[in-house]
Write a structure and sequence with these properties.
Elements: H1 5-19, H2 25-37, H3 43-49, H4 53-70, H5 81-96, H6 102-113, H7 121-131, H8 140-154
Helix pairs in contact: 1-2, 1-5, 2-3, 2-4, 3-4, 5-6, 5-8, 6-7, 6-8, 7-8
Length: 169
C-alpha cells in the first residue's frame, strides 16, 4: 500500500496557504478531494470534499479544522505566525517541485509577508536583490541559486504532524 504522507503534506500545505489568503477556499476543497483519492479518509474530510464551489467560501473555515484534526494535521488560525511560517514553507516546497520559479517564490513571500516574518526574511531580501540586478554585479542565476538554497532550508522542517495516520478509525 503506497504511503499517504505526500497527500497529507499537500493537504496541510493547502490549508496553510488558505489560512494566509494565498489560495482560495475552493482550492482547499479540491485538496480534500485529492486527499481522499490518495487514500486519506475520515468523515470530516469527506464532508469538506463534498462542498460545492458556492459553499466553499462560507464553509471551509468551519469544516477544515475537524478534517485536519482527524488526520493528525495542524490547523493554523487565520493570521497566526505559525500559519504564516507553514505557508512560507509550502510555497518553498512548491518552488522546489517546479510549481513556482525562484523569482516567483521570492516575490510572493515578499508581497505576502514583507520583511515581517523572520523565517522568510531572507527570501524578501532576495526579492529586493532581483529588483536591483541591473545595478549590481550579481546575475539572475546567482540570485536564483540563493533562493533555491533558502527554499531548501525552509523545507527541512517537518511539515506534517507526527500524529498523521492517513485514515480515520
Amino acid at each position: 500500500m503506497p504511503s499517504t504522507e505526500p497527500a497529507a503534506c499537500e493537504f496541510q500545505d493547502r490549508a496553510a496557504l488558505w489560512s494566509v489568503g494565498e489560495i482560495r477556499a475552493t482550492d482547499v476543497v479540491t485538496g480534500a478531494c485529492d486527499a481522499l483519492v490518495a487514500g486519506l479518509d475520515g468523515p470530516a474530510l469527506r464532508i469538506l470534499a463534498a462542498c460545492t464551489r458556492a459553499e466553499a467560501d462560507y464553509d471551509v473555515l468551519e469544516l477544515l479544522p475537524p478534517a485536519l484534526d482527524e488526520l493528525g494535521l495542524a490547523f493554523y488560525p487565520v493570521g497566526s505566525v505559525a500559519g504564516q511560517e507553514a505557508a512560507a514553507r509550502a510555497l518553498a516546497s512548491w518552488m522546489l517541485v517546479g510549481k513556482l520559479t525562484p523569482r516567483e517564490l521570492a516575490l510572493r513571500i515578499h508581497r505576502r509577508f514583507g520583511h515581517e516574518l523572520p523565517l522568510a526574511e531572507r527570501l524578501a531580501e532576495l526579492d529586493d536583490e532581483y529588483d536591483i540586478l541591473e545595478y549590481g554585479d550579481r546575475t539572475p542565476a546567482q540570485v536564483d541559486a540563493d533562493v533555491t538554497a533558502e527554499a531548501l532550508r525552509l523545507t527541512q522542517h517537518p511539515r506534517v504532524s507526527p500524529g498523521a495516520t492517513g485514515t480515520a478509525p
